[in-house]
Structures are given as C-alpha cells and as structure tokens.
Amino acid sequence: MKPPFRMLIADDHAHAREGIREIVTSDPDFEIVGEAKNGLEALELTEQLMPDLILMDINMPEMNGLEATRLIKQRYPYVKIVIITVSDDIADLFEALKKGAQGYLLKNLDPSAWIDYLKAVAFDETPMSRELAVKLLHEFAGRERTEPKTSPLSPREHEILEWVAAGHTNREIAEGLNIAENTVKNHLKNILQKLHLENRVQLTSYAYKQGWIQGTKGRDSR
Q1: Which of 34, 73, 103, 197 could potentially form a cystine with 202 if both were Cys, beta carbons 3.0 to 4.6 Å apart?
Q2: Which domain holds residue 76?
C-alpha cells in the first residue's frame, strides 16, 4: 500500500482552509501536513515539511500565490502545485501555469471533482480541460500568423501534441491513436523534456506560439 500524498494548504481564509481540509481528508490517499495563511508561510512550510502537493490560493497577503508558486518551483521543482481560485480569469491561470503550477481548481467545483483531479495531478496524468483548450485556441487564433518554427518533435509526437491541445486525456489519446496509454505517457514525457516545459498548458501555449498548431481538427466537438 502506497503512503498518502502529503499536502500543504495555502489560503488566507480560515473557512476556506477548513472546507478544503474536509474535502481532501475524505480520501485516504491524501494527508494534510500543514496550512499556510499567506505565500510567505507557504514557502517556509514547504522548506520545513517538504510536501508532495500544495493547494495554493492566488490572492493572499504578505506574498501572493503566484509569487509563492514561482519561488517554490524554483527551489523545490519536484513539488506539485495546484492553484485554487474562485475566478476562472484566464490571465491569472496562464500566469500561474507559466510559474510552474501543474493545474488549477475552481473552489465552486463539486468535491468529487476535486478528488479526481488531485489524484490525476499526483499521478502525473492531469488532462487539460476542454474549456481551457478552447480559450487557448481563441487566445492565439486572432493573432497574426508567423512562419512555423522548426520543430524537434517527431511526426507521432506532433500527432499527440494536437490531441493534447484539444484537451484530451491520455486514455482518450490512446484510444484515438490505437496505442497503449503508457506509450502516450512516455511520448508526452519526451515532448516536455525536449521543449523544457512542465505541463500540458505550457506545451499547448508554446506550440501555438511556434505555429505548430493551427486548430484542434474538431476532436473536442464530440
């Protein structure tokens, strides 16, 4: 039996921390090892407790969640960080992901969705939501197109990249391409390593900027 994932909560509201604690501790795969009231405390507690995963609010005093995320990922790159927020402002989410966060959760989501998502993050299987895939597409669709930059990716890796950009999970990609799910995981790991990126959102955004993706080929319209 695997030990539970050690989790740190960072939120300046006591009621919010209590609610998050209730959701997370309902599943034996997670253990709360500490709570921070601001980004500075989150940074200090990360050094003391070395958690596996941090749930990070954006707007906090002393140091906000975005700056705390940047510093934590700089010093402890193995720590996974999920942004928790009441807003789906795409600018905030992009900024958090640029600073190294693995994903985000809206506070008004159903508790069962939280658990499923956090397990996906913990096991490195986090899909990018269809909604975010569409927002990314719209973000770059209106920009003036440039000549595509030379890509270091293989044809198969480009194929997987297009599916990722459409917001599909590893399982859906495997089924669509008729390959094993572990093969998809390995391809995705290789793609991220080649491009020195950390997650699917960074990958998709980078691919649009490089001109490697012009659309999602309708795969997300099923």
Answers
A1: 197
A2: 5-126
Measured distance CA(87)–CA(70) in Å, rounded = 20
**In a 10 Å sphere around its CB, with 0-12 CB exposed, 13-18 middle and 19+ buried, how is residue 99 labelled?**
buried
CATH number at residue 122: 3.40.50.2300
* Phi, psi dihedral angles at 216 (to 5 degrees): -110, 10
Residues 13 and 121 in one domain: yes
Instruction: Specify the range with the lowest mean pLDDT, choosing from 41-45, 78-82, 175-179, 207-211.
Output: 207-211
What does the pLDDT look like over 137-168, one tens digit per residue? Answer: 555 555 555 555 678 888 888 899 888 888 78
Residues 6+ apart with CB under 8 A from 185: 124, 125, 170
Show which of 126, 151, 170 is a domain's final residue.
Answer: 126
Output the pTM of the full model.
0.64
Tell whether 41 and 148 lie within a shared domain: no
